[in-house]
Amino acid sequence: MDYSCVFPQQLDKNNSRNTSDAVKMALSISTLSLLILLPHALTSTSHLAVISPQDPALPIGSSLTVLCAVSAELGLAASSLYWTLNGRRLARSTYTVLSPTELSVTLHRLNGSQQQSGDNLVCHSDNGDVLAGSCIYVGMPPEKPDNLSCWSRNTKDLSCRWSPGGQGETYISTKYILKYKLRWYGKEKECQDYNVGQPYTCYIPRDLAIFTPYEIWVEASNQLGSATSDVIILDILDVVTTDPPPDVHVTRLGELDDQLSVRWASPPALKDFLFQAKYQIRYRLEDSAEWKVVDDVGNQTSCRLAGLKPGTVYFVQVRCNPVGIYGSKKTGIWSDWSHPTAASTPNSKRLQTGSCDPKSEEHNSTLRQELKQFFGWVRKHTYGCTNVSIKLYDQWRVWLQKAHKTRNLVLQSGKS
Amino acid sequence: MLLLAAMVGCVQVEDRAVTLSNERNSIERTYELTKYLDHQLKEIKDTYLLYLGPPFSDPDFSPPRPNISSLAVPSAATRVDLWRGLENGARLAQNQRAYSVLLCAVRELARSTLCPYLQSSLLHFCSGLSGLLGSISGLMNALGVATDGHAPLTTPALSPRPALNDFTRKVEGFWVLRELQSWLWRSAKDFTRLKKRLRTFHNGAGHKPV
């Protein structure tokens, strides 16, 4: 990626007249400028002072002596200057005046850099102005990257992940390059798309061969050294994963109050490949965090869950493993779980409130008598309530039952 | 006859009104974009200053402004009477020149940033800036002002970019973001003024704008 920029030059002659007018105006504005938006900014010449060394890189615990040579024109004495490191003033006892215009500072037992862009060591004049600065990089060479693993989505691509090795913190910018090559053909390639979502990952989107193993490794390097991981050898077909199964439906099985039927489709991306999919289902109660896993689903695309609680909402998920793809002997890699699908088992018969129960009949008739009396009183003593009667009450009960039924249907259709 | 003339006059004024209304809408949208970028810049600037580390992240820090081509922007700061008197075309041209230079400078900043999250934030911001430049060019076209087009990005540089040391590069980055902030503040005022001037022009054709 090249972002080399070019800056406004003399414009072509078509615009030259407008340009010169504009330039004149710009010049006049800048020469007459009174700053209304910014505090006064000091425009400096390029070298007030020179620091050496510039941008050194050192291991943790090292010592370093840095020199600030101030320009003679400034008329500043070296003894009046001072140093700061990351904004904190350094003790005068660490300074040495080498000449009227040169002041050095010695730093001992340096800690790892505070920020990856480097520690800021700055030489100041006595009134605090910045004369010059140097970025110091204190860190460690990288350790050998490990735990390198890769997986392919539908045999099309390859994603790899590794750990940085050791403590994982080098304090300075460390570059990781994932390299790969076909085992028996020499040409080495580099992965380009790093940190897609997570650090220490890389993604190879295309041009991958199958039926031939790859050698894959990671090279880490920074200003203080480099390290290479162990090489892993793999065949793309042995590390295939796929998308979660689509169209997961969970439905009731008639009146059975302790069972649910789960149906799904096999992942379409692999439909042209010869493989035997393995599936796994997991389910849990709506308000529980504990999943139950059904492992022996085999390669069917339906399953019946039994031993469930009646009248309860369950969340169900399914995932797929493309086993034996193109005759590969290895077990593949499980896909992600499908989006949770919810369904509820029917209410147990015993708990259903129906009008066939003799006990409730009795209770009902007392209630109805009282309601009749109440409605009669309401009609006599209030305005505008002439329609209130026991008939209205019965209509309301019917409406209530219908509303309950619709709610259950919605749950049954397995909306996730 | 008079009635006919009045009607024709009416239609003409209406056409002009529609055109000016379109331009005012464009200015309003450009103004909104400026405010949005200003808001985005605040967040990026804070993160960037943390990335540079102290003393850059200290509140009162102000290193000397480097005298280099990537900071060769027209100054956002200007005398009040000169700013008020700027003709519409010149006002837009100043904005265009400033953002052309600053867009390049921010791209370079993004390229040399070691932190991947910050780098992608800066690049995302660049596309916003690029959009702003496009809006300004569009406004200049609509108002019949000669634009620079894409000349700033295709003409060769005066001299090859000098090799900077890392500290100087940090100071440069600090100032690029500061200039950008000043210009976004200034542009908001520029576009508000432009809107006012177009409204005045529409209400009384030939009337000298305040």
TrEMBL record, chain A:
Where's it found, cell-wise?
Answer: Membrane; Secreted
Region spans: Disordered:
337-364
Is Transcription a UniProt keyword of this protein? Answer: no
User: Could you give a single Gene Ontology term from the biological process aspect?
Assistant: negative regulation of neuron apoptotic process
**Keyword flag Hydrolase:** no
* Keyword entries, A-Z: Disulfide bond, Glycoprotein, Immunoglobulin domain, Membrane, Phosphoprotein, Receptor, Repeat, Secreted, Signal, Transmembrane, Transmembrane helix
Family, per entry? Belongs to the type I cytokine receptor family. Type 3 subfamily.
Q: By what name is this protein known?
A: Cytokine receptor-like factor 1
From TrEMBL, chain B:
Question: Gene3D superfamilies given for it?
Answer: 1.20.1250.10
Q: Name one GO molecular function term.
A: cytokine activity
Q: Which residues form a coiled coil?
A: none
Q: Which domain of life is it from?
A: Eukaryota
Q: What is this protein called?
A: Cardiotrophin-like cytokine factor 1
Query: InterPro entries this protein is in?
Result: 4_helix_cytokine-like_core (IPR009079), PRF/CT (IPR010681)
- Subunit structure of this entry? Forms a heteromeric complex with cardiotrophin-like cytokine CRLF1/CLF-1; the CRLF1-CLCF1 complex is a ligand for the ciliary neurotrophic factor receptor/CNTFR. The CRLF1-CLCF1 heterodimer binds SORL1 (via N-terminal ectodomain); within this complex, the interaction is mediated predominantly by the CRLF1 moiety. The tripartite signaling complex formed by CRLF1, CLCF1 and CNTFR also binds SORL1.
